[in-house]
């Protein structure tokens, strides 16, 4: 087909709006609808689900003639890289050839938007695996997260990907939820600032960021995935929505994904208030709303608010869902029939198509010089017409299948053929010319991992470990020598790679055991697993599992476990118990003979019940999964000091093993280190903390509970949510939000607040009542001096909380409104300044208005939500104000170095404000923060 290439729509000198209007007027109804759906080559009934109910949703579908489907065009191409392992260059070449054929198949020569997951990096074989988002939150470093996102986006764009399905901006409400690992924090301000930084980084690379899941997804009862949500409009407005609002307003996100959940009986995919009135009319969002996978179909099959695919399509389109993902089930023939019958106005179709075409215009996909070959294939011109580096036998130079293998001439044949042809064992990513795991990305992944490690306890000062000759260290635990311990459920090895056990991981992932041996070369280090890795059983409760005879490791990562039943090749129940007992006996003996034990415990990530953490892997309680709790009890009973290292996707209850609440005489862990799936560089990062090569600076993005049940709450509790005599259940966490220790000490002095007019008051600190007066639309500066009083460099994280003593609705006792990382050398001091605006005190009233009201406030400077060091009092005077979308949402912070006593201070050189981080660092000239 010869594309229609004449017309204003291809004139790049015109505005995107003018070009899209011209193109839309030329399109038939079928061509318009084609822009509103996607195809997913390679998705079939084989293998495990990577989307919820994937096989159930597609089992009854008739085979689709993809060439006939795309002759009118195509809106999106689903997961070109993340469906099966592809060698990077071969995958990029296959995608380019598929795009060229899609464009050639339709009248206007328009390609598809190719989207991919990027929660922990570009989700493809051989790409850098970054720490999971919960680890991002632990860094309290949005600028670093933004840099990681920029690198991730650049890699995706170089391979031909246009849209990334990240970040997750759901605020954790119950850590039993399996997707806690994918979330940033239980605090909306931390989620908002870190998530917005990620959005800016991804968008700066030219990749569309997709905010998910809009909205309320994390607030399901009992933490069940896909569960209904009973949140009221005030909880939505003040807790669940602010991260999305900031990412749209200040981050420039160009796409939003509707959530699966319903709120008070209204599914998000059919909620016009959420997707149109709030998102577009109030917030001014102009991008696209895409359906979470099969989300439109779920209106019929799960929510039962639609009686047919046609009805589901009509409801979703009217509510504001522009694009159906991952494949066409509702927005194809069912929607076509509804429009032709007059049941759905064509104007609604035009509204959605305009948004899609505008993005294609911004991406250059409507330009006359559009080239399907992505930058990673720059060089050999045969990359699109043939395969990158293909040899005469149809393989690439390093053994990967050439993308034109078994090409039957259909439009999606190059991509489908590349997926169908397995990579050969021993294939090395990047040898065909595309390196998705370069040194720069590994360096950023390493820094993110190091800054995310949280030292929870070090009561005896055992850490950092001594590496002296002859020191005996027992490294015990099922996660100690397993790369899977570092990887979340949306990393390629755990998401897709488990279905391909014959392949390597695609990236180097040192285990913690390997990293400890390298970090402590003078120590005598021994290892015992102690128990089997945790696996979910068929009942949904987590139990210790054993890999079946047919399972094989993917570079050391256990794949699909079988439930032992004594069948052919599988152990009997008695044999399993004997094996567990032998593992425990070996570990206890090893620990008893050591100077110190490092107990490495944690999660095995997976999808839809195939792991102990991850999407669809919700927990009944917060006990350590599997037999790990019993193992830890046994190790503690030996009397050998135990350092507990947790590599998890959620916080677990640790009151049984650590902290001041242990019963008299009961042994407890000498130190506790928490890491949240820290990625491919996680092993060296945690080993660096254990050895002292890295001074820990991570802070808890989620509270660590004392007990495994009775605490489905976060630190954002009103007074009645705290411990009181009216209940026998004490919800006080063992380690609170924001908590984290260091190997050095910091002194905080001079806390105070100063109004813009110059009036000031020192912090009350219990012995004063100095109060600063502000108008209800006023501003003030909160000041604090922090000094490193130890003998090694370290980073303190100063957190600013708001306390509202009296309000019209109950308010959290403490709520984070600002923070600053303060890196200091030994003896060095810095002044931290927070720019507080009264908008930050706004909250939503019973009638749905967000107000700033006159009255008293407290600004609390703390090292955690429970460790308040200084309190500054404000009194707001004047009229009550109603604030809206344009309110101040970020409390900018500035760190001004003061130097070391007796050495003076170098002149400060201000840096530009970075609103996404909430932190502005001001350092002496020539010095690095």
What report would you give on this structure?
The protein has 929 residues and is an alpha/beta fold. It is built from 23 helices and 32 strands. It has a seven-stranded parallel beta sheet. The protein has a seven-stranded mixed beta sheet with strand order 19-18-21-24-30-32-31, with no helix packed on it. It has a six-stranded mixed beta sheet with strand order 10-17-16-15-11-12, with helices on both faces. Strand 27 and strand 28 form a beta hairpin. Helix 7 runs parallel beside helix 8. The longest helix is centred in the middle third of the chain and has 20 residues, at 573-592. The radius of gyration is 28 Å and the shape is globular. The N and C termini lie far apart (58 Å). Mean pLDDT is 87; it is low at 380-406, 540-566 and 906-929.
Report a brief summary of the structure.
The protein is of the alpha/beta class and 929 residues long.
**Number of H/I helices:** 23
Task: Give the spatial strand order of the biggest sheet.
Answer: 1-2-3-4-5-6-9
End-to-end C-alpha gap = 58 Å
Rg (CA only): 28 Å
**Percentage of residues in DSSP E strands:** 15-25%
Sheet/helix structural class: alpha/beta
Overall geometric form: globular
Average pLDDT: 87
| Fraction of residues in H or I helices | 10-25%
Number of strands: 32
Largest sheet: 7 strands, parallel
Low-confidence region ranges: 380-406, 540-566, 906-929
